Amino acid sequence: VRRKKRQLSGNQSEEIVPLRAIRDELGMTQAEFAVAIGLDPSTVSRCERGLSEPNFTILQLKRLCKLTGKT
Q1: Who is most buried in 14, 39, 42, 69, counting CB within 10 A?
Q2: Is the separation of the CB atoms in 34 and 22 below 8 Å?
Q3: Beta bridge partners of 16
């Protein structure tokens, strides 16, 4: 999975894993991925193209963690 770094204030940064990389690793289509985590497929498409950033609810984050095996 390709990770990106985003600079925060000061010397801090955070690693970002693009949704597309996660979805590709899971072998899912945009529609399958969207349904699995409770998003609209058009939202996944916009996020993958960099037109918007995901704004997940707690439930959607839990579903994403379950899909990826992260707790």
Answers
A1: 39
A2: no
A3: 4
pLDDT tens string 31-54 = 999 999 999 999 999 999 989 888
Q: Is 15 within 8 Å of 8 (Cβ atoms)?
A: no
pLDDT in tens, 13-27: 556 678 899 999 999
The pair of structure tokens assigned to 33 is: 């991925």
From CA 36, how far away is CA 67, in angstroms rounded? 8
User: What residues contact 65, with CB distance under 8 A and at least 6 apart?
Assistant: 71
pTM (2 d.p.): 0.75
CA distance 37 to 34: 6
